[in-house]
UniProtKB/TrEMBL annotation:
<dbReference type="Pfam" id="PF07291">
    <property type="entry name" value="MauE"/>
</dbReference>
<keyword id="KW-1133">Transmembrane helix</keyword>
<keyword id="KW-0812">Transmembrane</keyword>
<feature type="transmembrane region" description="Helical">
    <location>
        <begin position="46"/>
        <end position="68"/>
    </location>
</feature>
<feature type="domain" description="Methylamine utilisation protein MauE">
    <location>
        <begin position="1"/>
        <end position="134"/>
    </location>
</feature>
<feature type="transmembrane region" description="Helical">
    <location>
        <begin position="150"/>
        <end position="170"/>
    </location>
</feature>
<feature type="transmembrane region" description="Helical">
    <location>
        <begin position="74"/>
        <end position="97"/>
    </location>
</feature>
<feature type="transmembrane region" description="Helical">
    <location>
        <begin position="118"/>
        <end position="138"/>
    </location>
</feature>
<keyword id="KW-0472">Membrane</keyword>
<feature type="transmembrane region" description="Helical">
    <location>
        <begin position="6"/>
        <end position="25"/>
    </location>
</feature>
<protein>
    <recommendedName>
        <fullName>Methylamine utilisation protein MauE domain-containing protein</fullName>
    </recommendedName>
</protein>
<dbReference type="InterPro" id="IPR009908">
    <property type="entry name" value="Methylamine_util_MauE"/>
</dbReference>
Length: 182
């Protein structure tokens, strides 16, 4: 496995681990996530909770697959991440196209509504996961230096953490609306 694949594993593991923790890590988080799925109308009312459970389970399974030191598990994790992120991209794109306003619960809590930025982000992440899977299958051998493996994995994990807070980082640089009293 080459260093790029290790980096992708770190990125996706950190990102999905934060996503799972954000959806189940505090009281009411899972209910809020479930409620956020209802306006997306991808499934009918009673199936929404099952879909929410499935999303959290698959995200957790991807994390587990990507940390296991076996190439078949890594490949399964990367392919599952690619498919999951592609589904997220399509569902969010449909929602945005219909003009539906839905709060982003991708990583737990956020005040931002789902929008084009989420479609682009998830599409890019699906592409990165797919390229990571291709690198595992067809990439050149390498990645045998434990120090470089750790650097690649940690770099990816930091990038994955940044993905989860990019909305907050962008909001720091947005112009502040003038106060009504000024």
């Amino acid at each position: 496995m080459n260093y790029f694949a290790y980096g992708v594993r770190g990125l996706l593991t950190a990102m999905f681990l934060i996503a799972v923790a954000g959806k189940v890590g505090r009281a009411g988080a899972f209910s809020a996530f479930t409620d956020s799925l209802r306006p997306l109308a991808a499934v009918s009312g009673s199936a929404v909770r099952a879909v929410a459970l499935a999303v959290v389970a698959v995200e957790g399974a991807v994390c587990l697959a990507l940390i296991l030191p076996y190439t078949p598990a890594t490949l399964a994790g990367l392919l599952t991440a690619t498919a999951l992120l592609a589904v997220f991209t399509v569902v969010i794109a449909r929602s945005v196209g219909r003009g539906t306003t839905v709060r982003c619960r991708c990583f737990g809590r956020s005040a931002a509504p789902l929008g084009r930025a989420h479609v682009i982000r998830n599409g890019l992440l699906a592409s990165v996961a797919g390229v990571g899977a291709a690198a595992v299958v067809t990439g050149p051998a390498g990645g045998s230096d434990p120090g470089m493996v750790a650097v690649a994995w940690c770099t990816g994990a930091v990038a994955g953490g940044l993905v989860t807070v990019v909305e907050d980082l962008v909001s720091l640089f947005r112009p502040v609306a003038p106060s009504m009293t000024e």
